[in-house]
Design brief:
Number of strands: 9
Number of helices: 1
Distance between the termini: 28 Å
Strand content: over 45%
Radius of gyration: 18 Å
Structural class: mainly beta
Shape: elongated
Length: about 120
């Protein structure tokens, strides 16, 4: 381990292999509600498959009530800047949540509305 950085280095076949043991929410706190399921690098494309965490509540944009009552899921496909010369595509499965306030004008809160903003 290199100090307290969470990085591990190992010499493998003459190549230094660096493994990162940093949690996503420590590196980018605004993404604490996201779980990365898979990262694939092939040719000129880097594809990240992620989902909003099932244990993360969302706030109704209409009334501000917090909810964790799942309505459904849908997938957002986000194209981002290139990383290491590869185009990046993020497939983010987002929960749609019912607002639990019967008086709210909004019936559904998005489980990742704030995640779609650039970090």
């Amino acid at each position: 381990m290199i100090g307290s950085t969470g990085l591990w280095c190992r010499l493998v076949g003459g190549v230094i292999l660096v493994v990162c043991a940093i949690r996503l929410e420590d590196l980018l706190p605004q993404l604490a509600a996201v779980r990365v399921d898979r990262v694939e690098a092939s040719g000129d494309l880097l594809r990240i498959t992620a989902r909003t965490r099932d244990d993360a509540a969302a706030v109704c944009p209409g009334c501000g009530t917090e909810s964790d009552w799942v309505h459904s899921r849908y997938v957002r496909h986000v194209a981002d800047e290139a990383v290491g010369g590869r185009a990046v595509v993020i497939d983010l499965s987002v929960r749609r949540l019912y607002c639990e306030n019967s008086g709210s004008a909004t019936s559904v809160a998005l489980g990742a509305a704030s995640l779609m903003a650039r970090v």
